[in-house]
């Protein structure tokens, strides 16, 4: 996204932190647009959660293939069936994640992408669609929702037809490291990957199995609690972008009308009468969201069970604080700065964790 009237803001790749904004002193006219729309410098009004639901799709196939309960997928379907536009994160053939705007199909957006996603010109596309009086559903990270709201506010766009969903976020890994990882696995297996899944439904998305596949089948699968470099880098929080460790949006008040995540604490404070796997936590932060979700429930898209908000607040730390900086991060960054590959830098810095994971796995297998 670049809304500078003279294109003085560009984005460059930083080897340690992905894309960063660079302002050209020769072109800058001191209009302040870049500062005003930045979700770090200028925060929009946050919304306090009013209701918490445990929810899931009433379509078994949608629920099976979704990261948790399939609420996001059903929101996409609901909006598409009304002739509206939807925006979400998809992965292209080069394994770059990007936010895009569509009015047909939602499978591109389904399931989690544990990597930095590029906004491109999606904000300006949404601006145009809203000006044409169309309804838009936007699903993204809290910082992306904040950036969109700030952009539209600065542009003076009426957002009555916009519904924003923010995802409970732990942090993101820069795009280049994912590409390096995929290339290393292709080299090792002598296969060419055409798709990646961070929570492959064929292994149960609740098990967090990362897979790579070609046009024929899966040729690589990595369980979450073993020795895979990307799994450890993400789930141990070692390789996030620097700003993720100081994220303002890791708090109870939210930027979205709806907040979605896995509901790991369901049933801890009040009896839960349903299967506890494949459940979405649905935090309702606005009346608009309440109306949409209950209309979807009436029309048979989703099931909702109201829960104590504290069931999620007491278990999900990213609703209180950002991911803390792991002790291994310093060594990881040192390895990267010395020219080591992503995989080599992770293996070197996380050697002890990998050994512990393997010992636990061996004892778990023997115990069964």
UniProtKB/TrEMBL annotation:
Q: Which domain of life is it from?
A: Bacteria
What Pfam families does the annotation carry?
Fer4 (PF00037), FrhB_FdhB_C (PF04432)
Q: What keywords tag this UniProt record?
A: Iron, Iron-sulfur, Metal-binding
Q: Where is the 4Fe-4S ferredoxin-type domain?
A: 19-49
Recall the GO molecular function terms of this protein's record.
iron-sulfur cluster binding; metal ion binding
Iron-sulfur keyword on record: yes
Q: Which PROSITE patterns match?
A: 4FE4S_FER_1, 4FE4S_FER_2
Q: Which Gene3D superfamilies match?
A: 3.30.70.20
Q: Where is the secretion signal located? A: none
Write the protein's name: Coenzyme F420-reducing hydrogenase, beta subunit
From what organism does this protein derive? Butyrivibrio fibrisolvens DSM 3071
């Amino acid at each position: 996204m670049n809304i500078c009237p003279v294109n003085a803001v560009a984005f460059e790749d930083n080897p340690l932190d992905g894309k960063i904004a660079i302002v050209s002193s020769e072109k800058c006219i001191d209009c302040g647009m870049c500062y005003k729309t930045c979700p770090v410098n200028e925060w929009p009004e946050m919304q306090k959660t009013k209701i918490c639901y445990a929810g899931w799709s009433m379509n078994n196939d949608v629920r099976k293939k979704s990261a948790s309960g399939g609420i996001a997928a059903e929101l996409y379907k609901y909006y598409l069936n009304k002739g509206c536009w939807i925006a979400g994160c998809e992965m292209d053939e080069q394994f770059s994640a990007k936010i895009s705007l569509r009015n047909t199909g939602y499978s591109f957006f389904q399931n989690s992408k544990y990597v930095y996603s590029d906004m491109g010109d999606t904000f300006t596309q949404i601006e145009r669609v809203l000006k044409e009086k169309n309804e838009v559903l936007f699903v993204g990270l809290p910082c992306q929702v904040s950036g969109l709201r700030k952009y539209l506010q600065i542009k003076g766009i009426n957002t009555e037809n916009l519904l924003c969903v923010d995802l409970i976020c732990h942090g993101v890994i820069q795009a280049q490291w994912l590409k390096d990882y995929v290339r290393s696995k292709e080299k090792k297996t002598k296969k060419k990957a055409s798709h990646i899944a961070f929570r492959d439904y064929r292994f149960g998305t609740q098990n967090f199995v990362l897979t790579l596949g070609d046009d024929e089948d899966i040729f690589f699968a990595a369980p979450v609690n073993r020795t895979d470099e990307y799994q450890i880098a993400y789930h141990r929080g070692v390789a996030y972008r620097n700003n993720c460790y100081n994220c303002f949006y890791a708090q109870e008040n939210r930027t979205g009308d709806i907040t979605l995540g896995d509901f790991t604490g369901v049933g801890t404070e009040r009896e839960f009468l349903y299967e506890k796997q494949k459940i979405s936590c649905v935090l309702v932060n606005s009346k608009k969201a309440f109306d949409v979700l209950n209309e979807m429930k009436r029309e048979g898209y989703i099931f909702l069970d109201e829960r104590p908000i504290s069931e999620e607040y007491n278990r999900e730390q990213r609703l209180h604080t950002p991911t803390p900086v792991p002790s291994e991060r310093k060594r990881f960054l040192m390895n990267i700065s010395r020219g080591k590959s992503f995989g080599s830098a992770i293996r070197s810095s996380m050697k002890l964790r990998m050994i512990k994971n393997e010992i636990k796995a061996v004892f778990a297998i023997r115990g069964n």
